[in-house]
Amino acid sequence: YTEAKARESYGFNNIVGYPKEERFAGRPTQRVSGLYKTLESKCSMGFHAGWEQPHWFYKPGQDTQYRPSFRRTNWFEPVGFEYKQVMQKVGVIDLSPFGKFNIKGQDSVRLLDHLFANVIPKVGFTNISHMLTPKGRVYAELT
What we know:
It comes from Gulo gulo (Wolverine). This protein is an alpha+beta fold. The protein has helices at about 1-10, 35-40, 75-90, 110-115; strands at about 45-50, 50-55, 130, 140.
């Protein structure tokens, strides 16, 4: 995988890069969620943090190919539809590529307040926050 990605990156060194562009060398990877086989025929799969994951689902007759663009891509409408379904009805979101931490204990909120630059949300809510180094520099962005 690493060799394929390095060759691809070097080969694309002087070409135009599109926003949210997918590169296909080394794919599909071995890191897939348990849903991969079920989903791959119903959606366009993408790459995130070494994992294959659904990027958008399509309806019969829709363009299923990945088409990069500086404007709205062919997946703009399907993603908008998915968003409405999840927000107004129900949906399943595959978060396999994301690391998860389970922090428990009496001082867990105090620890998180110390590590992150943002206010820790109430239970049942989420936000994006930056984890800081001891010198106050950004170490990572977490949700």
